[in-house]
Amino acid sequence: MIPVCRLEDLPEGESVRVDTNPPVAVFHAEDGQFYAIDDTCTHQDASLSEGWLEGCLVECPLHAAAFDLRTGRPTCLPARRPVRTHRVTVDDGVIHVHLMAEEGTAA
Ligand code: FES
After folding, report:
1. 34: Cβ–Cβ under 8 A, 6 or more apart, which residues?
2. For the residues 6-32, what does the mean pLDDT come to?
């Protein structure tokens, strides 16, 4: 479980990049939910945290592939492979991301 930032530091419609390995992008979507996906686009080497957020989709800043934040799946070309999704929780006003690889190993 990795602390990301305080709740008030990630307003709706904003995103933040977390320097994990591989990096993760955390979004505060327009539905009020928080979502985390791998930050690197599966098409080429663009940072999805710098993309455009619309509803529950993020559009890659380089060639405009869009990914569904809920599933990680691309909704249009040129990306074909999904990004991984990660669980997000808020504890004591702090946003945390639970990397997919950590799931099942947490105590
Ligand atoms: S790098 Fe994301 S669509 Fe090309």
Report:
1. 10, 26, 27, 28, 88, 90, 95
2. 96
